[in-house]
Amino acid sequence: MTEPLNRDLLALAQRLALDACDMTRSHHGPVATRRKADTSVVTEMDTAIQDHILSTIAQTYPDHAVRAEETVEKPTAHADPATARYCWVIDPLDGTRNYASGFPFFGTAIAVLDNGRPVVGVFHEHNTKAMYSATSGGGAMLNDRAAHPCEVAAGDDLLLGIPSSKDSLTLGVIRRWTSTRGFICRNVGSTAAHLGMVASGALSGAFAKQCKLWDIAAGWLLIKESGGIITDPRGGELVPFSLTGDPNADVPYLAACPDIHRRLLDTIPNSAS
């Protein structure tokens, strides 16, 4: 990817994330939800934000593909993810349950993949106005400052992000982390936010099993460009991401500052795939 295109893609991703923030400002308090086939919740705002983002991408980069959390209403407006070089991966509203309940923490995650590898990553939290962004080879930023993982000294407590899912692997990790002295667990209800917080040093590490490509694509680049480590729960590579398989397949991850990634790997139950 050329550097000018890199900057252009980042600028568009940031603008679209800010547009999404403007859209949620018009609604306050609890909103109506419906259940999707996988039993997760969705609101009209999720769909409205995604439609705006996809429409803009189709007009600006018609030769780019898209992968998004909600149903893509006009798939022929975009290139085929299996053959296109560039693919935008979008979570229009990460933290939908928070938004629907009036809990003020949710945001928009946007990544651009080049042959399956993230080259642009953006997560904007709509309430705190935290804008996490990264480009391949260009480092990671939190608003106007460089983002870096925390430095952990011996004996320091670790603030760790955990998910809300209750599968056996997740419950095993949570039991081990909550019973380990010095491990303090947090869950803000957004995978993308957890990854941004690891990249910027607010969290020492984070784990999730039942997250999807759109939850993790932007955050993967934020972690890598900030100097952190992100792998699958057994320490294996996550990229290049597959764009030909089941888009709803789980993409488990373990992310941490370099000082403790190996320590956290040792806490993952042997059942991790």
Structure write-up:
This protein has 273 residues and is α+β, with helices and mostly antiparallel strands. Helix content is 31%, strand content 23%. It has 7 helices and 14 strands. The chain has helices spanning 3-24, 44-60, 96-101, 168-178, 191-200, 213-226, 261-265, and strands at residues 34-35, 41-42, 65-68, 86-94, 107-114, 117-125, 131-135, 139-142, 145-146, 158-161, 183-186, 205-208, 229-231, 253-256. Strands 3-4-5-6-7-8-9 form a 7-stranded mixed sheet, sandwiched between helices. A 5-stranded mixed sheet has the order 11-10-12-14-13, sandwiched between helices. It is globular. The model has no long low-confidence stretch (mean pLDDT 93).
Provide a concise account of the structure shown.
Helix content is about 30%, strand content about 25%.
Please tag this protein with its features.
single chain, 273 residues, alpha+beta, 7-stranded mixed sheet, 5-stranded mixed sheet, 7 helices, 14 strands, globular
